[in-house]
Protein: Lipoprotein
Amino acid sequence: MSIGRSAVAIATLTALAACSSGATTAPSGAAPARAEVFGAAGYRGIAPGMAKEAALATGKLATAPVSMLDGCTVLSWQGGPAPDQARLAAETEAQRKADDLNAKADAADQEAKQPAGKSAADSAKSAAKNAEAAQLAADSAMAIAELAGKREERDKAFAAAGGASFGKNGLHELGAPPEAKTAEGIGAGSSLADLHKAYDARGLKENAAGRFELPIAEKPGWHFEFTPTADGKVGGVAIAESAAKCR
Structure:
């Protein structure tokens, strides 16, 4: 009796193990899950041209902007960088100052170009206007340079962490999170040699800002943008509308 019971117990345990193994093992012919590609169709349900409200409804983006420069509303991916209130305030002030001084410089320049009278008093008045216009132009140039610095800080942060930038016509730039890759396997950390190997034949070119652009054939008016690092790697990947501005 004891031998029979042992045999039954062993058979039962063997059957249970087989059932358990079968429940957790995928069929040998099943294909492994493929990682989502970052490309012309967008990423995580966020697509080119999508309205900000529709993009937020996906739940993939943070709701509070990390930058508002130039009228562009930049949102991080969920889990990405949180808004820096000091940086946002500095951006707002730099934008206000540049806009204000640029408008004053333009007005002063137009005033200085008005015909002057022939008297000594008229000449003195004209000289004063020219001096004022020159000073405002110099102040405006400094403010514009400061604003450009804020843009560079924003762009570096965007390249590193990715996110979505919205203008008056919806999404105009989408930055890949660090783990995302294009269909050709290019992402943050890829070598520039691999970048060129993948895209040179398709029209990859360096732009004036030192980034590499690649036209997106299936999305006219849009391009890939690859930000290089000093050590010869890709620091960030984005798709952007070529001509659109936020305001």
Q: What stands out?
A: The CA atoms of residues 181 and 233 lie 14 Å apart. The beta strands are 73-75, 163-167, 170-175, 205-206, 212-215, 222-228, 234-241. The chain has a mean pLDDT of 88.
